[in-house]
Amino acid sequence: MINLDYKLLSALNEIVEQQGFELAAKKLFISQPAISLRLKNLEEKVGQPLVIRGHPIRVTPAGEKLLSHFKMVQQLENDLMTNLFPTISSHPVKISLAVNADSIATWFLDAMAPILKKYLIEMNLIIANGVETLNKLRSGQAVGAVMNIESPLPGYRSFKLGGMNYILVASKDFQKKYFSQGVNKESLKMAPSINYDSKDNMHQNFISKHFDLNASEYSSHTISSSEAFVDLAKRSLVCCLIPQLQIERELAEGELINLCPNYRLSETLYWHSWVLVKGLNKQISQEIVAYGRQVLEN
C-alpha cells in the first residue's frame, strides 16, 4: 500500500494553483529545483504523470483525484483547528468556492457575509457555470459550488436552493427605437443583445423558444460581466436577459422595463458540498443553503 506524502501533495497543489513552478516554489519557501523534485517523486510514487506541462498547467485524471483528496484533508484540518483553538485567529482559513457570476451579482455575497464577519476567512471565489463548475469540484480547485446541475459527484451531495428568474429587459429609449411595433421576430433581428461568453446560450435559447429566431440572425456582444449587462441595458445599448433579483430597483423606478411580461426563463440552482463536511465548512454550507432558499423562488 502506498503512503501519501502530504509535503509532495502540497507541492502539486501549489503548482496547479500558482500555474507555475517558480511561483509555487516561492509560496512554499523552497527552490524551483526542489519543487520540481517533489512533483517528480510524487509521480514516481503513483506511477503516472500528474500534470500536463503547458500554458495553462493542467492536471491529469490521477492528479485530479489526488488534489481532491488533498483539499478534503485540508477541510478536515481547518475544521479540527477551528474547534480545538476557537480563539486563535492569526491564520485565515482558506476556502475556495465555485459560483456562477449571476449568483455573485445578486445573493451569494449576502449569504457569506455573516460567516466572513464572524471568522477569519480567506475566500477564493471561482466564477464558473454548468459543467465547468462541476469540474472545479472534481479537480479539487473548489470545495463547494453553486450550479444548475443537481446530480453530485461521488463523495458530494447537492441541496436545492431555488429558481433564479431571468427576464428580457431594456430601457424605454431602446424599446422605442427597436420595439415600437412590439417585440417580434423581425424587430429582434435589428436589436443588439449580449452574451456572457461563448458557452452562454441562455439568451439564444430564450429567443429561439419564444420567437423562433436563430442566433445567426441577430447581433450579440460578448462581455463576461453580470454588472455590464445591467449597465449596457441602462445605457440603451442592448436588450438582454438579466436576473429579476438583480434589477428590482431599476424595474421599480422604470429605468428598465420587462419587454416580455408573459415570458421568463427560470434556472434552478443547487449547492454542492462534501458529504463529510464539518465545522466551519458545515456552517458555510448551512448559511448558503438557508439564504439561497430564502431569496430564490421555491
TrEMBL record:
<keyword id="KW-0804">Transcription</keyword>
<keyword id="KW-0238">DNA-binding</keyword>
<dbReference type="InterPro" id="IPR000847">
    <property type="entry name" value="LysR_HTH_N"/>
</dbReference>
<dbReference type="InterPro" id="IPR036390">
    <property type="entry name" value="WH_DNA-bd_sf"/>
</dbReference>
<feature type="domain" description="HTH lysR-type">
    <location>
        <begin position="4"/>
        <end position="60"/>
    </location>
</feature>
<dbReference type="InterPro" id="IPR017685">
    <property type="entry name" value="ArgP"/>
</dbReference>
<dbReference type="InterPro" id="IPR005119">
    <property type="entry name" value="LysR_subst-bd"/>
</dbReference>
<dbReference type="GO" id="GO:0003677">
    <property type="term" value="F:DNA binding"/>
</dbReference>
<keyword id="KW-0805">Transcription regulation</keyword>
<dbReference type="Pfam" id="PF00126">
    <property type="entry name" value="HTH_1"/>
</dbReference>
<dbReference type="InterPro" id="IPR050176">
    <property type="entry name" value="LTTR"/>
</dbReference>
<dbReference type="InterPro" id="IPR036388">
    <property type="entry name" value="WH-like_DNA-bd_sf"/>
</dbReference>
<comment type="similarity">
    <text>Belongs to the LysR transcriptional regulatory family.</text>
</comment>
<dbReference type="GO" id="GO:0003700">
    <property type="term" value="F:DNA-binding transcription factor activity"/>
</dbReference>
<protein>
    <submittedName>
        <fullName>Chromosome replication initiation inhibitor protein</fullName>
    </submittedName>
</protein>
<dbReference type="Pfam" id="PF03466">
    <property type="entry name" value="LysR_substrate"/>
</dbReference>
